[in-house]
Amino acid sequence: MKLWGGRFKDEESKLMEDFNSSLSFDKKLYYEDIKGSIAHVKMLCKSNIISENEKDKILMGLEKILEEIENGDLKIEGDYEDIHSFVEINLIKKIGDVGKKLHTGRSRNDQVAVDMRLFSKDKAIKVKDELNKLLNFLIKVGDENNYIMPGYTHLQRAQVVTFRYHLRAYYSMFKRDKKRIENAIDIMNENPLGCGALAGTTYDLDREFTTSKLGFEKPVDNFLDGVSDRDYIIELISSFSIIMMHLSRLSEELILWSSSEFKFIEMGDAYATGSSIMPQKKNPDGAELIRGKTGRVYGDLMGILTTMKGIPLAYNKDMQEDKEPFFDAADTVLSCIKVMGGIISTLKVNKDNLMKSVKRGFLNATEAADYLVNKGMAFRDAHKVIGEIVIYCEEKQSAIEDLSLEDLKKFSDLFNDDIYEFIDYKNSINKGIKSEIGYNN
Ligand code: ARG
């Protein structure tokens, strides 16, 4: 069933019809499509293009279709070209010829553009809401587990931080992600309805009216751009990709930390899985899947970027390929943020193992060097002295703070009793990451 065909003599091939149809995936847009049509019809009436009576009939038909789709009476299937044809043909079936007036002053090009903007804006807001929940979990779980732990560079133990501080790094990352989404919404918040196919229409359409009805900030400035702009989709998927990159880094750390080699955390049973053969296993599948799905979202971004790169103005059918990557990326990022929230809020932190790892890692070596500097030694020399102490400790299987003053004085007579206070881990934290004074050790 088609909305066109007047100028065609021969039947379309079945192969081409299937190839061309987007209904199987753009059916997701039914709500936005009907919402856009409702605003359009009200505007047509207000601009005296259709009568009050015609408007009421069409609105009644559209609302009925929406209701039937939502209660399952009307299934979105069949040989329709796309969701726009589906709604319009069903409207005509329902209310008769007056339904044929719906598409006055409109093209599917501005129609699909408005549908996608409404849909992607809604998804972006949902992503923002989920990010907010994750941000709260990171704060809460960090505050509840404010234990000293090793901080790493090159995955080698480096200096002390706290578990809370570590989670707050992710807090900062996801907060930036939230800003990126807000900014994308701000840029995309323009109404393409009224652009027509590419060059406007001969009707005096009230674009301000549909703009305010649909909750956009303003109408688009340029019709050619309005129907062929997909920047907002690219921008959102690119923000989603950055979120996934952050989620993936966090996943990687959680996977490492829950291994027997680290044992810093234990995943909650609700977010771990077992092995079908090895009874002892508790696998961090949730985090691994998030890490894995990151590749998929990057793929969606590359797909749409590549699709858009050679398209001349204005609309071309290539743009139908914007939908699946966007739907996939949005659904994936939303479920990954939710699952990460679950993982974070149910994990248990092993305070003792964090501390053991701190002790074994010479995490106060930098502070010990600073101590000698404060006593007058040049930093390079202090670095060397502490390096020698570390070798000595490794041989004796001891920590710097466990050496006697007598032992320490063998390396430098600048050492005094106050060294122990100076290289105490809690003091290092208070002096170093400062903002995090106090920890529940
Ligand atoms: N299914 C199409 C898409 O998603 C709708 C727009 C069709 N426009 C057209 N001129 N054929 O892009």
Automatic annotation (TrEMBL):
It is found in: Cytoplasm. Pathway: Amino-acid biosynthesis; L-arginine biosynthesis; L-arginine from L-ornithine and carbamoyl phosphate: step 3/3. It is an enzyme of class 4 (lyase). Residues 362-430 form the Argininosuccinate lyase C-terminal domain. Gene3D superfamilies: Fumarase/aspartase (C-terminal domain) (1.10.40.30), Fumarase/aspartase (Central domain) (1.20.200.10), Fumarase/aspartase (N-terminal domain) (1.10.275.10). It comes from the Bacteria. The keyword GTP-binding does not apply. Signal peptide: none annotated. SUPFAM superfamilies: L-aspartase-like. Its EC number is 4.3.2.1. Residues 6-299 form the Fumarate lyase N-terminal domain. It holds the Pfam family Lyase_1. GO terms for molecular function: lyase activity. Keywords: Amino-acid biosynthesis, Arginine biosynthesis, Cytoplasm, Lyase. Belongs to the lyase 1 family. Argininosuccinate lyase subfamily. This is Argininosuccinate lyase. It comes from Clostridium oceanicum.
